[in-house]
Structure to design on (772 residues):
């Protein structure tokens, strides 16, 4: 591409078509900015803005209160000993895997682990053993499966895995496994546990200490109303000196964080939304109630909710055999659902999906959820003769 | 910290004190957002905004034109075969080091390399050999030093280093080494070269192919008028399959990028500013002229510019013996300069520095640079009897 005026025209400011829609994509519902975060974004948008206030260590900046946020508020919020801000949950996971494991070591992942957990382990050179789930319809994860997996690794490789990970909840079905029991099983074998809380931290109460997780990863752009990429990482006292070890070349810089991570608008939007995020987490029971109400309405229409029931998270997976039937017959084929939802200003079911899809009810409230449910009902009706 | 209403009050939206000042911090001058980027920031601020348009691979998104940007515009701009967007220049460097080197391998760095190059190499488990510079006043980097360093590594470790890196320009003196000659020296030994262009890409013309660099790293928040953390990485055809290798667990995700990198406002501000960035790079001769004019005015006042002369970059290092003298005598001590500049609405010389400091003239234009130079002159005058 020659970079002339004509080709450059396609870049510059670009509108975001989905901005005004009701978005039920699980990736988006917890990442919508608060008003304070929108203001922070404009205020701190320039490149390295927070570095104007930095004496050499990002998380030691006193004003703006990054120090208080990272070293006082975050450990309290995650209920862990030490915390840092990272470039995302996957970067948090990689930092843990890369510092706790050595290439050739093993890691145990739950069978519903996010692809980024696999990729992070692969990047760290770790071999992967998965704990199977029970499959459809519950996708239940038996904590005892961790014992079996750890024993298998030990038998095959001569030593226990370096690390275990559990996804809490998983990103497909929104299942909340018994993380506390899993931590206890792992600890019986002296295997530390990393809790991937990308869909938990910032949405629902979660305590690393109560669970017994040695590490906890959260996502700012997924669940903490922040502009990404930004994440959080909590580590126990025992492992903090390893994960947050300092460079031998530069005494104040932490190796796994490459010195500095979120250094600008991202950390400032995380801080801006934090008071609201703390408050919304306290409102989690209402979110669960909304999710259950929504699931019940969907089931009344003949959709089948997969995963835990009654459900305890806003992320839900549905099977919609009737939509699949329709897609086989209508002109627009498998794109009919996406288009009919778009016409109703609803976004978030991936284009082309009909038989199976996931969605999230988080933060939408009963009124908007009602509009979504009514819209699905209308679409069913529209095609009732098909 | 108990997360109650009183403690949460310190978070939320926070003002940025330096927003209206003339900022000469080298970290800031190339990262100021364009108007288009400010608009993009607000439009695309929410968490995972671009993922609404993603079919599974970030850099394949057609609308917004991330695909065209990453696969057509960026390779042209960097003059390399393949490019990607990353979470920053240091993350670009780590991705290269981690995929090209194995723990225990060696890397050759120039003696003026940024700390993040050291930390990235350390994180990748690489041993570091540095190419010495000539020291004060020029800090000249002899390309032949790379031959010596490579030979030393080969002698000591039994094999050549996995990689060499050159900082172009360095972040202390703004020196532009003879990167083309360095590439040619490295290639004589079959050692690939990574060009750290965090202060070049987006400010001045730079061509990976003309230089002969196998890899080129750039920074969005440092030099491409983008809201960070965001960076770019260019790789030659030969090494692209290694650095951008796909996961064995997920066929579309690239391991070194952990699947996805800049997935939201950061990539959209990079794209928003891109047309202006392409244009400002064409204006580089004027920037160099401004830097030289500024340097001359500073030298007239008795400050001494260190590093290359005549200078060919906006980042400059000054020695100011007179300011040091003043700082020894005045009440405010070494903070007098910071405070006197602040009173004149100028920011960017680190608080407490007087004898040595660096600054950048980039993008400020003659008028603002005149104000800065006049202000330094006034401050000298203010203390002339001290």
């Amino acid at each position: 591409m020659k970079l002339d005026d004509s080709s450059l025209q396609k870049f510059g400011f670009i509108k975001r078509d989905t901005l005004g829609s009701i978005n039920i994509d699980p990736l988006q519902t917890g990442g919508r900015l608060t008003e304070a975060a929108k203001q922070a974004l404009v205020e701190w948008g320039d490149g390295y803005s927070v570095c104007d206030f930095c004496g050499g260590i990002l998380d030691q900046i006193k004003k703006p209160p990054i120090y208080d946020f990272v070293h006082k508020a975050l450990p309290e919020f995650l209920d862990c000993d030490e915390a840092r801000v990272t470039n995302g949950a996957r970067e948090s996971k990689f930092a843990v895997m890369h510092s706790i494991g050595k290439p050739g070591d093993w890691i145990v992942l739950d069978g519903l682990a996010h692809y980024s957990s696999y990729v992070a382990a692969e990047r760290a050179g770790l071999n992967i053993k998965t704990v199977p789930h029970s499959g459809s319809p519950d996708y239940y994860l038996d904590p005892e499966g961790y014992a079996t997996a750890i024993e298998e690794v030990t038998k095959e490789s001569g030593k226990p895995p370096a690390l275990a990970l559990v996804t809490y909840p998983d990103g497909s079905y929104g299942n909340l496994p018994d993380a506390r029991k899993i931590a206890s099983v792992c600890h019986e074998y002296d295997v530390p546990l990393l809790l991937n809380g990308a869909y938990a931290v910032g949405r629902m109460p979660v305590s690393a200490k109560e669970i017994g997780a040695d590490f906890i990863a959260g996502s700012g752009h997924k669940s903490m109303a922040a502009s990404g990429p930004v994440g959080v990482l909590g580590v126990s006292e025992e492992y903090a000196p390893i994960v947050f070890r300092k460079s031998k070349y530069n005494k104040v810089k932490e190796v796994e964080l490459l010195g500095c991570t979120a250094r600008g608008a991202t950390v400032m939007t995380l801080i801006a939304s934090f008071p609201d995020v703390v408050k919304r987490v306290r409102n989690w029971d209402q979110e669960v109630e909304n999710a259950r109400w929504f699931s019940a309405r969907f089931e009344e229409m003949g959709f089948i909710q997969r995963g835990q029931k009654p459900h305890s998270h806003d992320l839900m997976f549905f099977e919609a055999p009737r939509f699949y039937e329709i897609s086989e017959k209508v002109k627009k084929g498998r794109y009919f659902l996406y288009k009919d939802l778009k016409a109703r200003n609803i976004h978030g079911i991936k284009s082309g999906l009909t038989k199976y899809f996931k969605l999230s009810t988080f933060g939408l409230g009963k009124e908007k959820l009602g509009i979504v449910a009514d819209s699905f009902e209308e679409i069913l009706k529209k095609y009732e003769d098909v």
Notes: The mean pLDDT of chain B is 97. Chain B touches chain A through 95 residues (CB under 8 Å). Chain B has two domains: 35-280, 283-382. The domain at 35-280 of chain B is CATH 3.40.640.10 (Aspartate Aminotransferase; domain 2).
